Amino acid sequence: MGFKGLNLKIKYRSSDDDIVNDFYIPVLENAKLYKRAVGFFSSSSLIEVSRGITGLIKNGGKIQLIASPKLQEKDIEAINKGYEDRDEIFERSILDSFTKPSNYFEEERLNMLAHLIAKGLLDIKLAFYEDDNKIGLYHEKIGLIYDDQGNKIAFTGSLNESSTAFTKNFESIDVFSSWKGKESLERVAEKENDFNRLWDNQTNKITVFDFPSVGIEKLKTYMKEDYDQELDKKEFKESQVESLEFDLDNYPKVPKEIDLYDYQKQAVNSWVDKDFKGYFNMATGTGKTFTGLAAIAKLFAEKRSLAVIIVCPYQHLVEQWVEDIELFNMDPIIGYSASCQRDWKDRLKDVVIDFSLDVIKHFCLVTTNATFASDFVQKQIDRLKGNVVVVVDEAHNFGSFNLSKKLNTNIPYRLALSATIERYGDPEGTQKLFDYFGEECINYPLELAIKEEKLTQYYYYPIVVHLTKDELDAYRRLSKQMAKCFTTNKNGKKVLNDKGKRIAIKRARLVAGAQNKLSALKEEMIDYIGESHTLVYCGATTVSDIDYVDGKANEKELRQIMAVGSILGNDLDMKIAKFTAEENSSERGILKKEFSKGENLQALIAIRCLDEGVNIPKIKRAFILASSTNPKEYIQRRGRVLRLASGKKFAKIYDFITLPRPLNHVKNMAKSEIKSDISLIKKEIKRIEDFADLAINPSQGFRLINKFKDVYNLDKLHGGV
């Protein structure tokens, strides 16, 4: 149709335009001749010049290219002083300007240009500035394009055909069309005259000569049997999904071998319907990670451009996410202090610039909560423009005072993943999460997951222990101190002050580290000395071995996890290992593999780093020595045991229930003493109810609850600290 049918602008700028798609491709598809003076010569400048020319080639068009050898200061000095032959320096410069193509498209473009040279459709000349026999650089930029109807387009500006012109720099070009008035026609004629005089070596102080044969031979080394005539269409004009797939670059997509469950598809669709905001409330082990990644793929498919930021609590969870991110066809930047990608900060800075300028259509950062909250990462996020999504795993953590301040409101698309989105005892923090992420997209509870066989069934065995006399005395003392630390909040509700909260933590640790749990664990574990796939959850606390001499305590404190390790490893001679924050990601990976095999490693002893996200499906039984009153913690721990695995028909959970004193002592106590026990009893009952309710053997837990209620007359008594 010629140029007149195109809706051309008089200026194109990187901030507002896609210069390749908006200018080069439509113009060159209607062209017969392309004349270009590009500045410096390099293989990357050839690649950039070739963008959009497949339409020109189909029209039987030709290209005339003028470039300047990219000389170093020492080269110019050597020529000017006669130290070295000028032609030899030019040839060396041309050969040095060829660099290895970095992807399929660059390789194919050099192949295509080699074919054009061989067919006589591409002619290259070199130019340099020369005055009084002194050599300088020629760096003029002119473009002329002709159609078969006599129309001409001239363009000038800052756009260099270099490795960074189309990809990293901010560029602009001015466009003049011969049919758009006298002034524009004159400018086209002026630029045409300038180029033709250059081509014919008639420009004052500029010397133009034929491209050296060594350069032609070098270009021909990229020639294949044929070239891809649909190259521009594949790289630019089709949907970005198709072009990236052809380019072998990475972009989010659901792997063909993964068939999402219906509830996962419903979650993604609900998130889409809610304008790509919301949270997935899904039981631990039901595939939150895959569902979140499928949501990312869905968003990319619609927007065709997407920056992805994935945040999870710990470094070992980042590494676990990386495996799944790569499965979903993304190449993540792994951002945290000990990352295997030493240059992750430089990579992140580069892709943020490229993405914001629409040079690239996608990148993915996966990072920890702490690194996400760092000034460096927050600064990069502030610089992002365009379609950005943040996916936060175990998102309940971001309701905290410090992390909630790092939830950037400029990120348009948001997804929270959690089995326990509501923060225990923190309604304000919970509301912050709802305000930022939006509405619930799916509620897939543990009960439904077990019923639909997405998680395994389990037996529940509560193991009752009681505090020692010294522990009980300490517990009652702390309870009395706590009772003095209540205050009234703005809603008129009685709450603990900061001092009271510290005392509460100390009291909880005392219960978690109750000494009698160790002997009870040893007794229960005897039945599994020869078994594998056992997990023991310890508290981040201490146990005390106390000998009283003349009424004075001689106390040796030992971390509970070390005491458990000694019992299992030394006393019972089992093959065990710790799984804690002290082990690095590589060590944890080895532990998971060995644990799954079950040959050289029978049991893992863990603290909190297994609470969130870690996937070890082979766990058959768990001994929970310590659980806080926070449902999030024991829900996470239960879910860790219920993941499906080959050969695993059911799981077993042994839950250590701590009472203030033996039940047969209660009947002889005064009511005031009984009341001090009630708080702990009620908390333990709540957990037993939650565990027993979904167990294969619920009666085991509920019989115990009824016994507690009967002994403590809980239907009549109320209160307690």
Automatic annotation (TrEMBL):
* UniProt cross-references to SUPFAM superfamilies, sorted A to Z: P-loop containing nucleoside triphosphate hydrolases
> Which Pfam families does UniProt cross-reference here?
Helicase_C (PF00271), PLDc_2 (PF13091), ResIII (PF04851)
Q: Which Gene3D superfamilies match?
A: Endonuclease Chain A, P-loop containing nucleotide triphosphate hydrolases
Query: Which GO terms fall under molecular function for this chain's record?
Result: ATP binding; DNA binding; helicase activity; hydrolase activity
Q: Where is the Helicase C-terminal domain?
A: 521-686
Keyword annotations for this protein, in alphabetical order, are:
ATP-binding, Helicase, Hydrolase, Nucleotide-binding
Helicase ATP-binding domain sequence ranges: 282-439
Keyword Nucleotide-binding present in the record's keywords: the answer is yes
Report if keyword ATP-binding is assigned.
yes
Q: What is this protein called?
A: Superfamily II DNA or RNA helicase
Q: Which organism is it from?
A: Selenihalanaerobacter shriftii
